[in-house]
Amino acid sequence: RKKVILDVDTGSDDAVALLLAILSGKLDILGVTVTWGNRCVEDCVANTLQVVELVDAGIPVYQGCPAAMVRELTPGRVANNPVNRISIVEDGVEYSIHPAKMPIPDAVGKPEPIHACTFLIDAVKKADSKVTLIPVGPATNIGMAFRMDPSIAENIEEVVFMGGAVNMGNATAVAEANFFHDPEAVKIVLDSGVKVRIVPLNATHSAMLTLEDADELIGLGTRAGKLAGDMVKTRAAASLRMGSTDGKAEPIHDALAVAWVLDEAVMLDARRQKCDIDISGGAADGQLIVDQRRGNDESSNTVVAYKADKDRFFAMLKEALARGPKI
Ligand code: BDR
Ligand code: CA
């Protein structure tokens, strides 16, 4: 089984990604590190613990960094872009893409007493085979770990990001939220030379789950299926309220990164291309830059996914979420 560490900011789609990783039974999850992003890091830790305990996974959870490596220190950078709203309050009701608290029992456990970055470095260096990192939030913990000890690169199989967008964006017109929130951290990883695969919005938007899909997940009769289905519906309702979609289908971004680690064939179009990220603080701040010129790809350490196989993804999700505790 592949050794992996998931880095999450749970988060509705992070919750589904975690459930898929845990219940696939195909991954050796060394631990889950938690970053800030969808909510403050403390809320993201609490949500992550709830999800892990829901399916009795017994996987250690580590709290990581509370803010980006340098973003708030750079004049002119605005993290609170109004386009990137995650919730809206109407008549006292909060419609949120990412609930502050998962609609499942409170967690009993606590995060482990060491910092996520310390765990990450130790776990990667001690592992007897190479470790795959799956960051599906702002990449602060991963960038910080690479800064603290660049030698971890030697024992990393690859880093599979959910982040970035090619000719589209959600945090800004051209930048996706995870990459926008800590572009320096992403750049450190890209420049490290380690193997990287990127699941941008292009791929996640090509495999949206519908309200009918959500009902199918709930119909599995398991705790995991119910939470995942509820999360699809929560996201759809919030997106509709915020006017960003018609409320009928939602991308479950982070689960696609896990799906790609589990099965290469889940991406129908993936290209080896040189990548960079804009950190200059202008209109393209946080934008994933993909070199589309021919002949520039052979030496690249990065592969970018453009299109996913929705049916394959959904089948994989259903198979996994049918496992674990029943309702
Ligand atoms: C990404 O941003 C977060 O809101 C989601 O959890 C996902 O990781 C999508 O842009
Ligand atoms: Ca996320």
TrEMBL record:
GO terms for biological process: purine nucleoside catabolic process. Keywords: Glycosidase, Hydrolase. One of its GO terms (molecular function) is purine nucleosidase activity. One of its GO terms (cellular component) is cytosol. Residues 4-314 form the Inosine/uridine-preferring nucleoside hydrolase domain. InterPro entries: I/U_nuclsd_hydro_CS (IPR015910), Inosine/uridine_hydrolase_dom (IPR001910), IUNH (IPR023186), Ribo_hydro-like (IPR036452). This is Nucleoside hydrolase.
